Amino acid sequence: MEEINQPITPTQTPDQMHSSFENSRNSKVIPFVIVAVLLVLVGVGSYILGTKSSQPATENKVVSQPSPTPIPPTSTPDPTANWQTFKGTFFDLKYPNDWVARINPIPYTVDVSKPGETNMVASRVDDQNLEQLSDRVASLFWKTPNVEQVIVKQITVDGENATEYFGCAGIEGCVNQYIIVVKHNNNLFKIDFIPYSSQEKEIYSQILSTFKFTE
C-alpha cells in the first residue's frame, strides 16, 4: 500500500505571527481613517459653503455724479459803448454824451470837455522830435520843495509806446494834470487831461482806451 505525501505547513515563528497580526489590523484601520478624513473634509466644505451663502451678495453699484453746469464767463459791460465818437484827421476817440468836442484846425487840436470846462486836449505838435517834445513837456511841471515830484510812466496809446507825466503844472497856478507824449507815423502828439475829480480820472482812462490813430 502506497503512502500519500501531504504538504507540510511550515510552522510560523512568534515574530511572523505578530507581523501578520499587525498587517491584518492595519488593513482594517486604514479604511476607517480614510472615511474619517472624508467626513471631516465634507464637514469643512459644507461649513464654508454655508457661511458664504449666508452672507448677502455685494453688488458693485455705479453712482452717477451729475455733471457740473459750466458757468459762463461774466462779461464786463463797456462803459464807452454808447458814447459819442469824434472822427478826426489824425485820430478818433469817444467821449461821454454830456461832453462836447471842439476842433481847432491850426495847429490841429481837439478839445473834449464838459461844457464850460477844459478837461482833455489832444493835439498834433510841430516839435522836431520826440526827445524835444518830452523835454518841453517836462519843463511845464513845477519843481519846488512844496510840490510833489513829477511821476513819469511808460504806457501805450493804440499800440504805440508813450510817456505819461503827472504832476502840478500851469502858468497861472498849480493844477494837477496828466500830459502824454506819443509818436505815430512820424507825427508827434500831446494829450493833456485835467481831472477835477476822481470820477473824471476814470473817464480819462476810458477816453484814452478809445483813442485810435487814423493815419
Structure summary:
Helices cover 29% and strands 28% of the residues. With 215 residues, the protein is an alpha+beta fold.
Task: Sum up the structure in keywords.
single chain; 215 residues; alpha+beta; 2 domains; three-stranded antiparallel β-sheet; 3 helices
Structure description:
With 215 residues, the chain is an alpha+beta fold. The protein has two domains: 14-53; 84-213, Mog1/PsbP, alpha/beta/alpha sandwich (Protein Transport Mog1p, Chain A, 3-Layer(aba) Sandwich). The protein has helices at 14-54, 130-138, 198-209; strands at 84-87, 91-95, 100-104, 109-113, 120-125, 151-157, 160-169, 175-184, 187-193, 212-213. Strands 3-4-5-9-8-7-6 form a seven-stranded antiparallel beta sheet, sandwiched between helices. The chain has a three-stranded antiparallel beta sheet with strand order 1-2-10. Strand 7 (160-169) and strand 8 (175-184) form a beta hairpin. It starts with 13 loop residues before the first helix and ends with a strand. The model has no long low-confidence stretch (mean pLDDT 79).
